[in-house]
Amino acid sequence: MRYLLFLLLALGLLAEPAQAEVTVAGIFGDHMVLQRDKPIHVWGTADPGESVTVKLAGRSASTTADADGRWRVELEPLKAGGPFKLHVRGTNKLTFKDVLVGEVWLCSGQSNMEWSVARSADAKQEIAAAKDSKIRHIKIPRRTAGAPMSDVTASWEVCSRKTVGRFTACGYYMARELRKKLRVPVGLVNASWGGTRIEPWIPPDDLDAEGPPPANPQQPSVLYNGMVHAAVGYTMRGAIWYQGESNHTEGSAYTDKMKALIDGWRALWGIGAFPFYFVQIAPFRYGNSDPSILPTFWEAQAAVLDVVPETGMVVTNDIATLDDIHPPNKQDVGERLALLALNRTYGESVVDTGPTFKELVVEATRLRVVFDDTGGRLNTRDRKAPSHFEIAGMAGRFLPAEAKIDGDSILLWSDDVKRPTAMRFAWHKLAQPNLVNAAGLPAGAFRAGELIKPDVLRGGPIETGYTLVYDLDLAKLAAEPRYDADRTAKIDGAFDRVAYLLELRSNDGVSQYIWVSMDAFTDDVKRLGVPSVATGVSLQQSVSGVNVITNVKGVEGAHRTDGHIEFWPNNYGPANGAEVPGASAKIWDFGDQPGQPVAGYGCMQVHIPSRKQTVFAVNHWRAGGAADIGIGNSALDPRTTDWTFARNAMGYNHKRLRVFVRLK
Length: 664
What we know:
With 664 residues, the protein is an alpha+beta fold.
């Protein structure tokens, strides 16, 4: 019997139970760079209960795989150096060669971060000069996932003429500057994907939630799940981010999304508020007609600096290519990212940003704009007067301003603006201003002061007997409205009439208003505001006794006319499901069909069907600056007369909606 067992073992016909080999996560490999001066985390899989030991440069740590076969160790910090070997031993042994210890940066975003050295300016010369083997790069493969993926298949590459063409250009040029100043190895973890929005990169609220690996890279959290999560825990110094082109119509909503991204990553990495430096997208000929959409987005990007600590921003308005959304000059981008890191992370005494707004002083017929971060003085790139400044006064219309440098200030004036109250700088999607500081770094777009707000009610009531219920600055549009005034609790008693007053002033200074009142269509005052998900309002019905008073050409006044309202937070289509007389079933007008999801596009519209006339529309409020707002019928898109898809909210520097009732 013993002989038979021996024979079977020898022939391989009888084997001992198989054991799983110890593995490490795919982020680890030959030629990797590990973060200096911080605890180094290494993790992987093994048999449940299996002992695992990791050794690196005289440091050692051991652990036991948990019930799911996962293990993780922490090695004591190391100074910069190498090359070393990383040894991992369980039932088997793994060895990783040519391991360096230095500075590690995560590089993420869309195409301008993914943009390679080979596709950037002076590519041949840059590739020929790439000889620094202490810069290393790992590209995380493009991958979406419905749930966080804990591993990845990728390889570290050593910088050389053969490899550097594949490196992220922004990251590489940043790393090259850090190498010059710090003289330590630099590793780049490149998790980027061209054309993607910010939402897919934001971590999910529930990391344990399951879901299919979806194909659409624009869905929330799918790129965090598929590309970032596998690197979480890999000790690093900080992150750089270049993204926004795909979100550029959103205005202030982008600030909140950036905060969610940064806070989410920091919480998961568990290394504190690591530095997060990002690039402001460049001027470009975007197809939308409103030139202020991009400056409003720049403003939202800059606002991140005020709400998220340990952040910095690179301005690129001086190195744009207006007909190319991918400016080839990535050298300056990388070098400016390096300046932020050298000053704010590594304590080097360098100027790391261009002039930034400090305060606005009104001086009779002119404005004084005071700046910080001048580096000693303000200057212009072309030695001409500062360009792209505008001022506005009582008329609320911005006009080009004369500008003069005065120490750390710019003086602004115009013969056409006698009493200026507000200013703006570089407020155009194609603006390439010339203002720089002593270090040659450019100033970014901003605005300051107070525009005089129009109010048609200053001249007296439009119709008497009405009481204010809601007052909403539509610049604050969001999924759930943030009213400037909510007086629902003070409305005591029944009401028989409802009125809406919409006031708009375009960026060109043209003011419009429309007042529409009607017989009450509900007895609940809380159902009269923006029909968000929280209110539960979904109304598509006729209304009676409609009065319309307006100064908008092409929109007729009305007295005691029948009307129609469409109030809901849902998505909606053009089908005339309610069979509203005269409505089209092919275009979005006054007979649309609400659908799923309820937390969808959203519309708040009043119509006069007999005239095929939109009175006013406020749609897509969750889009913030990209919402749809209008009076009368829209002519912006042949698919719609009710302003759906207009995305024009940024075209108004004043937009206010008030809701009134007439008490019985």
